[in-house]
Amino acid sequence: MLKKWLKFVLFSLGLFFSLVFTVNAESVNPLSHHMNDPIAGNPKGKITVVEFFDYQCSHCMTMAPVMAAIVKANPNVRVIFKDYPIRGPLSVYAARAALAANKQGKYEVFNHALLTTNLPLSESNILDIAKSTGININKLKNDMNSDSVKNQLQANIDLARELNLTGTPAFYIGKSDAKNRSHIDFVLGEMSQNDLQDAIKKVSM
Asked: pTM for the complete prediction?
């Protein structure tokens, strides 16, 4: 009887830890390996930086040139952009436009233009910026209302809520082959280029 009980306990513990490992392993995929996520830098880079951001967030705007400089200085880094519109309908509109621009291979240039513009953000200005970056506006508008863009944006929002994100920008930095979140560093808020470079160096070791 005791042997049967021990076998049952050991089996249950093994099943529990197997499930925990599986959940942790799966949780990394939507964070850094989600299909159709916009990517900058080296798509096969060994280090991944994931950024959650909002186009109306002043700290995210400050980070735009920092992110561009990091990509340029680190050929072994891939950057995953997670549009996370938390500042109202205009942020949602901009995020949908950016994800639609990704379908034309114009995400990175459009994203940078939106975050660094001196124009006040409005629907018309967002479309004007898109046009200035060579985006087909008619296709953009159609794609903005597509299920694929809506679903991708909702997936970002759901993931951010699962991660209990309290603001933007938020960064997850780790090796691209990380198996669970415990191997990925989290930073909330803007950083200098040196700070972000140090964070990348830390996880590279």
From this structure: 0.85
